[in-house]
Amino acid sequence: MQSLRQSVTIPAQLAIAVRRVAKQKHMTMSRALVMLAEKGLEAEAATDENLNNAYRRFMSAGDAERKAEDGKDLIRAIFGRTAIAEDSIL
Predict the structure, then answer these.
(1) Would you tell me which of 9, 41, 54, 61 could form a disulfide with 66, CB atoms 3.0–4.6 Å apart?
(2) Quick one: CA torsion of 72, 77, 79, 80, rounded to 10 degrees?
(3) What is the reported pLDDT for 15?
(4) pLDDT value of position 81
């Protein structure tokens, strides 16, 4: 894969956190930024896939009980795991 040099300005607190990660993993700041960006993009893609799967399950559910449970899963996928009051906070 071809590399592209890019200059970015990041907040000081974020730079401190990235520096800490780089030091812990024995890598350069640049490599740590790349690794963290890749992980963030992967997490974003996983979140999108989870949302799409929850939506598909909800839309294809047949009986009312299953539809209600799939609806709760869809709400959790959109608003977070603690979006439903009866859910326990873990």
Answers:
(1) 61
(2) 100
(3) 96
(4) 77
